[in-house]
Amino acid sequence: MKFRWQIWFLVSFICVASWSLYQSMISFGQGEEVGKENWNFVVTKLNRPSLEAFCRDKKISSTAKEPAVLEQAPFSRDNPVFCSATLEEAQHSYGLYEQTKAKEASIKLTFQFIGVWLCILLILFAVSKVLNRRKQKE
């Protein structure tokens, strides 16, 4: 049986799509865990009643679309602050944030996958043309 490029494309597409879907499916739960950890850190270690009170003390504000970036442990650029009044609100905000990042990564991965396969096909086409010219000259 001869493996053709279509079979390799299909196999690689299934692998990439499976990984992308898996990451998208688990991202909200991972975000909820991050929200719970941040909430517990602020409530237990910093003795604040909520993330909202922590934000008021630091004089920062955030929205669901634009979280506040704070360079103080455990917060960073990858783990921003959502000024949430309740634990459930914090978990939901962090869940949506992680899910949005996963969707953006999935879209980027899809276009990279298509671009790589287009390059592979163009290179294979060029190589086959060169090889066919050499055979015709002989």
The total count of strands amounts to 0
Strand content: under 5%
Return Rg in Å. Answer: 24 Å
Contiguous uncertain segments of 5+ residues? none
Overall mean pLDDT: 87
Task: Summarize this entry quickly.
It contains three helices and no strands. With 138 residues, the protein is mainly alpha-helical.
Give an account of the 3D structure.
The protein is mainly α. Helices cover 72% and strands 0% of the residues. Helix 1 (5-45) runs antiparallel to helix 3 (87-137).
Q: What structural keywords apply?
A:
138 residues; mainly alpha; 3 helices
Break the fold down into its secondary structure elements and pairings.
Blueprint: H1 5-45, H2 51-58, H3 87-137
Helix pairs in contact: 1-3
